[in-house]
């Protein structure tokens, strides 16, 4: 197939949340871009209230600020070294944080097929967090681990998927004696054709030491 044929080739891009189709666009990549711009509000993100505290809490530790979640089309390990840990500076030993609860986000699926029914890429993921952990030495509700779990990640040449996650500054939604860390986790996925990024998808989730996880924003990024 020539480069000109690839430019004119048409696709079907589909987005599903918890198995329910919320977006379906057909056309060339450029036409899909244009339709996405017109459908900016096609999704109805769910929100949960977090007080706006402009100053990050420096008594809280995040084990990382940004990391790869998909490299060369393959997910990184979705626990242990790739998990994010949020603890108190007074005690960073995770074994001292107990009685946590498990929370899971919506299941997100993003896929692209050509008009012959051949899949170009298919990614399914959700966020898993352990929250509400207690530590008698520091009080509060803590978040021992948060990570991106992939149920599926496949691509067909010349398509390839890359992905990164990043964390906002952590704020304290509790008190100094009973701290509750809150932060935003952003997941960015890039669909590349060869070395050129053709489509991007970005999702944001609020992670709360007391309330768990909530999807707050989702959008296609058009290049």
Summarize the structure.
The protein has about 220 residues and is mostly beta strands.
Structural notes for this entry:
The protein is mainly beta and 223 residues long. The chain has a domain of 152 residues. The chain has two helices and 15 strands. The strands form two sheets. Strands 1, 2, 3, 6, 7, 8, 9 and 10 form an eight-stranded antiparallel sheet that branches. Strands 4, 5, 11, 12, 13, 14 and 15 form a seven-stranded antiparallel sheet that branches. The chain is elongated.
Give the structural class: mainly beta
Radius of gyration: 19 Å
Number of helices: 2
Terminal CA distance reads 23 Å
Number of strands: 15
Mean pLDDT: 80
Low-confidence stretches: 1-7, 41-54, 219-223
- Helix-strand string: HEEHEEEEEEEEEEEEE
Q: Choose one word for the global shape.
A: elongated
The helix content, as a percent range, equals: under 10%
The major beta sheet can be summarized as:
8 strands, antiparallel
Q: Strand percentage, roughly?
A: over 45%
């Amino acid at each position: 197939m020539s480069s000109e044929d690839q430019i004119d080739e048409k696709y079907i891009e589909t987005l599903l949340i918890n198995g329910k189709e919320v977006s379906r666009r057909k056309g060339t990549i450029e036409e899909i871009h244009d339709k996405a711009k017109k459908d900016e509000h096609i999704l109805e993100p769910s929100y949960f209230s977090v007080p706006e505290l402009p100053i990050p809490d420096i008594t809280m530790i995040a084990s990382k600020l940004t990391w790869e979640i998909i490299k060369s089309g393959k997910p990184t390990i979705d626990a242990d070294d790739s998990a994010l840990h949020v603890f108190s500076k007074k005690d960073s030993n995770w074994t001292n944080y107990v009685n946590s609860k498990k929370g899971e986000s919506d299941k997100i699926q993003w896929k692209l097929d050509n008009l012959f029914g051949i899949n170009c890429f298919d990614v399914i993921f959700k966020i898993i967090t352990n929250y509400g952990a207690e530590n008698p030495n520091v009080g509060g509700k803590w978040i021992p681990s948060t990570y991106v779990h992939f149920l599926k990640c496949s691509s067909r040449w010349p398509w390839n998927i890359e992905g990164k996650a990043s964390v906002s500054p952590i704020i304290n939604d509790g008190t100094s004696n009973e701290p509750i860390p809150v932060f935003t986790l952003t997941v960015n996925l890039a669909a590349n054709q060869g070395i050129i990024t053709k489509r991007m998808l970005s999702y944001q989730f609020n992670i709360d030491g007391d309330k768990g996880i909530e999807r707050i924003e989702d959008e296609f990024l058009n290049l």
